[in-house]
Specification:
This protein is 38% helix and 20% strand. The chain is an alpha/beta fold and 234 residues long. Helix 6 (154-165) packs across helix 8.
């Protein structure tokens, strides 16, 4: 079955060109030129990934990204004509999975789409693990805290899974960033820290007295959650 992409960009000509180009790579593409139209198509079509422009009429892409993240964990790639670091920080903090400045080569966008989708649904046969209040299902790529499914973005779950699989082993920022690779974020050295900040907030993990993720000053992060073992009755 084809992956469905939703483009939200007020440039109708660009939408048409991208739709034609991406269709040649086997994607089903739908497009919207206004934020409210984009939300409507998101609800109707349930796309696999959103390509979201920052400069939109009425509601900018950052505001729309925040609104989408209130209800959806769908991967988001943001497009912008601006390349300032502050834009990247805002995009990450709001839950974007990738960031591509305009102008860009369409083939690069395809590579980003493939990378984000691969990370979003990568096959993982690691069994579900419990760490006290936290349960991580690696194959279904979701986590629960106190039995409630967490709304984690692709990057947030990827970082959590990496740390949990390396429980007790400090990972530096470069190691974590490599796992989140394939994007513009690789040249942006605050990616890991912002992702960890969002992840800790969702885990309700106090950095000063952590239960799951501890900062290793000057290095990176370490997962300290205590794994629960299955009990065997004799």
């Amino acid at each position: 079955m084809k992956d469905t992409l939703l483009i939200i960009d007020d440039d109708a000509k660009l939408n048409q060109l991208l739709s034609s180009f991406l269709s040649d790579f086997g994607y089903k593409v739908i497009a919207a030129t206004r934020p409210e139209e984009g939300i409507k198509k998101l609800k109707q079509e349930s796309p696999d990934l959103i390509i979201l422009d920052v400069m939109l009429p009425g509601m900018n892409g950052f505001e729309l990204c925040k609104k989408i993240r209130e209800s959806y964990t769908i991967p988001i790639i943001m497009l912008t004509a601006r390349g300032e670091v502050t834009d990247k920080i805002v995009g990450l903090e709001l839950g974007a999975d990738d960031y591509l400045p305009k102008p860009f080569e369409p083939r690069e966008l395809v590579a980003r789409i493939q990378s984000v989708l691969r990370r979003a649904r990568g096959l993982d046969h690691t069994p579900t693990k419990r760490f006290g209040r936290l349960e991580i299902d690696f194959s279904k790529r979701h986590a629960k805290l106190d039995g409630v499914v967490l709304d984690l973005t692709t990057n947030e779950f990827t970082a959590l899974a990496l740390l949990a699989k390396n429980k007790g082993k400090p990972l530096n920022r470069d190691q974590i960033l490599e796992e989140l690779s394939g994007s513009e974020w690789t040249a942006f050295n605050r990616t890991v820290d912002i992702t960890m900040s969002r992840l800790r907030h969702k885990l309700k993990d106090d950095p000063k007295a952590p239960s799951f993720i501890k900062t290793v000053w000057g290095t990176g992060y370490i997962f300290i959650g205590e794994e629960e073992r299955e009990r065997v009755d004799r």
